[in-house]
Amino acid sequence: MASKRTENAGGTSGRESTKPPSPSSDLRLQVIPVDPHRLFCSWWVGPEAIEGARALCPEAAGDARLTLRILDLDKGPAGGPEAYVREDFPVGAGWQERFFSLRQPGGLVAGALGVKDADGNFLPFLTSLSVTLPEAPATLPATEPPLPDPVQECVVPAEEKPAAIADPGPVEPPVAPAPPPAATPTGPSLDEFAILRSLVRIEGLAPELCRLPDLSPEPDFSPSPTATRRTPGPGLVPATPILDERGVVMSTLAAQLSQHSIDRNTAVASPPNGQQSAAAIGSGASSFRLASQVGAHGNGAPMRLSTTLVISGRVGPGHRLRMGNQEIELRADGGFTCQRHLESFPSGWSILLQLADQAATEETPSFELLSRLPDAGAVLTLDSYVEIEGELLDPSYRSYLPRGVNVDAAGRFRVVRHVPPGALFLPHLVLIATPAAP
Amino acid sequence: MTSRKANAAARHLVLLLHAHLPDCRRPDEPDSLEETWFFGALMESYLPIARMLERLEREGIAVRLTLSLSPTLICMLQDPALRDRFRRRLAATEQLARRDAREAQCQLRHVAEWHAGFFQEIGRFFDQQCGGDLLRFFGQQHAAGRLELATTAATHAFLPAHQAHPARVRAQIGVGLDVFFKAFGFRPDFFWLPECGYYPGLDDILASFGVRAFALESHGITRARPPPSSGRTPIRCPSGILALGRDTELSRLVWSAPGGYPGHPDYREFHRDRIHTVDEAALTACLGGTARRLPTGLKYWRVTGPHQEKAWYDPAAAAGRACEHAKDFLQRLGAAPEGHGIWFVPFDAELFGHWWFEGPIWLEELFRLLPHEPRIAAETVTPAVEASTAHVGRPAPSSWGEAGDYSYWINSDTAWLYPQLDETARRFEALLARFGHEAPAGLAGRTLRQASRTLLLAQASDWPFLIRAGTAREAAVAQVGGLLSRCARLCDELEAGAPTEATLRRCESLDRAFPSLDLRHFQPRSGW
């Protein structure tokens, strides 16, 4: 990227007049402070934004990366634009959310999404609003001795849930043999992280799984969308694009997994023999081990997933049913089964139930609302579940699958998770599609 | 007032109880877990605390207590239908205790009878002394100078999570103050920051609403810039508003799970409820045929020890222990090294009675003993903080969460929620901008107002708290999911220019908080 077009601006100063590469609705960035060293960021960089970035810097070819720059707004302008730069993180496009660990604690910061080329030139096209990182309690010695506990002999345990509200526990359907690979679909690919995030909400998926590295497609800023993009081969839905930058995987994974412990840069910069600081070993060894695993398996993604939402049920007499704009065919007894391949963003689905002879204004707005009707069970019964067919490409990820899931010799598995209405009808459900490879 | 000591050397003790529950009305669900939270807090905490105040007033004993009532709780306490459901629940609980007293063996009979009497007295107090209106009672106590009433953000949103959007923070504060004003007829001087969550700039917003003081976790004071000489010194922010720090050492005597007063073997065991052993016949007879097995408030056992075997509860022994612990608290406070400032000890009001059943007795004994303790003067929060010498500075961003930062509410378990809240808020704000400064009339106006109500409710800090704590995770996910879903539905219809009465009525029946909500609080202001 030619430096004459992209000043290496750290802050917003001097960059505010930069025209966004696409309509603002195609770009989102939210930054929330978590602790003195961590930020939670979510962003949406849509296809239009990527196209706009390509148009803005046509010579960038394939060496520019989408980057989240953390700006240090406590720094004064005297140090020049560089003074504002706190840290840069290569990130993916589409809908993303991640925690970022910062080397320096505290301060007033903001995020800037932009394109960074191999020379380090950064062209921001969206800046977040500023936020202040919190401060931890001081570790200075107390000026007064602590008061001794008044009660020594008992421990008050954490509140127990009454039996009535205890978790029902995972509902595992009979394990079916893994299906044969499906034909390559022509539709958009999936963002399995969004689905996994949803599943964690739905029930008990290992949290580690939803903190997998950022495997969503890296935006390609080359002038032609087909010039450098790698096209996945046939097989299951190409949910996981092929990564081409090991460093991104390593740093992202470490950042994702180091919730409480390991410093991102310690993990990335650690020598291959695993020598780390005592602090890092003490508090973040497991994170590092996992980072090493990912590094070891190279550029490939650890798994592929194909996910389908299946809704079956029965509608009371005199009703008809729509999912979105699609009429659902009912059997004679009112039963139905419908499926949706989880692929589109940002679409949650409303299941509309209407009395067959009533006007639209009389409709019950959605199942979520319907579920609170006293006679909801008589009108509509639902059994929704998400069915995931997957293929493990990296066997070391086997341990992160839910317990009870069988994996065949070829690494294929099937997971079914029932979906409570509250999870199903969260707006957007964070189900994200990325454009299919041309 | 007799408790006001002229002694300049006296150390000021400021006790604050913060009462909050998320809006948990479920009119279409007879036995909901969420309404059980409200009934439990009302019968075990709010009413016993009010009874304590009434008793001390009758005996001429001075009280200086600050009580923060959250706007969602205020709305629920104002709801006549919820009051009726509470009365039925209270009567059923008493009935179950009486049934136990009739059928049980000697020791259980005694403790069951005691519980029946306790809940009968609570019901009598609610109807006869309060006229079913607890807010009116608290208002009278405030007017008499015994209580300082305060409030918090509309739905107790964790404000640092929304700091990038000052208009959203303003809406939480503005709507909250409006609800309080409509309930009591005056604006509070003190504002309780939800979860003590503070970030630089929040004080400016509070000051713009006329708030005079707020509270922080202790390191919000000790790490202020520049830092004061002591954590007990109030800070005057650049905006002029005063900030007060929690005294962690003194608070720990009550708060500490492993070593605080509530863990004493004599106290009532919170974790063992009669519902776990009640048979179907009794459940059906007392709580109705469709009753779910939710906590009743009948807990016949005492803490006893860390093991599973629990002894029967002895109310007299527990009350005596609470009095001893009140004395111990004052002795420790009196014995602390000399120093100026304010010993500020805020607690969740629900700790007193609901969690620590004898908490109201402890509090009552404290007020009985205080007039005899020359070194300590109790005061309510605003007079105390305004009478102190303040240090000028900027408090540190902080919360009273586990690590003192924001991670208890923003973490890997809850992070999914914030983009959804942001997206929903963006849609609502775009609609608001489309309609301009004047709220639309008719159905569109009602729908927009309902969307704002639902959005506020979704922002409550309770949902990430419950998800993180794991205590009612599924219920919290379902609640916030339903709220976001309903808000999205309302926005869908407004965006399509076709709001429907059916959707609106359904949503209004489910999310009833803030009936006279003013949309102007959501308008962005210049300068932010």
Shape of chain A: extended
Radius of gyration of chain A: 25 Å
Main sheet attributes: strand count, strand direction, barrel closure of chain B: 10 strands, mixed
Query: What's the total number of strands of chain B?
Result: 10
Mean pLDDT of chain B comes to 90
Helix and strand element order of chain A = EEHEEEEEEEHHHHHEEEEEHHEEHE
The number of helical elements of chain A comes to: 9
How many domains make up the 3D coordinates of chain B?
2
- Compressed to H and E, one letter per element, the order of chain B equals EHEHHHHEHEHEHEEHHHEHEHEHHHHH
CATH class group of the largest domain in chain B: Alpha Beta
User: Sheet bearing the most strands of chain A, described?
Assistant: 5 strands, antiparallel
Radius of gyration of chain B: 23 Å
CATH superfamily of the largest domain in chain B: Glycoside hydrolase 38, N terminal domain
Strand content of chain B: 5-15%
Describe this structure as you would to a colleague.
The complex is a heterodimer of chains A (438) and B (528). Chain A is built from 9 helices and 17 strands. In chain A, helix 4 crosses helix 6. In chain A, strands 3, 4, 6, 7 and 8 form a 5-stranded antiparallel sheet that branches. In chain A, strands 13-10-15-16 form a 4-stranded antiparallel sheet. Chain A has a 3-stranded antiparallel sheet with strand order 1-2-5. Chain A folds into 2 domains: 110 residues, Immunoglobulins (Immunoglobulin-like, Sandwich), CATH 2.60.40.10; 215 residues, no CATH class. Chain A is α+β, with helices and mostly antiparallel strands. By secondary structure, chain B is an alpha/beta fold. Chain B is 48% helix and 9% strand. Chain B contains 18 helices and 10 strands. In chain B, strands 1, 2, 3, 4, 5, 6, 7, 8, 9 and 10 form a 10-stranded mixed sheet that branches. In chain B, helix 7 links the parallel strand 4 and strand 5. Chain B is globular, with a radius of gyration of 23 Å. Chain B starts with 10 loop residues before the first strand and ends in an 18-residue tail after the last helix. At the A-B interface, strand 1, strand 2, strand 8, helix 2 and helix 9 of A face helix 8, helix 9, helix 11, helix 14 and helix 17 of B.
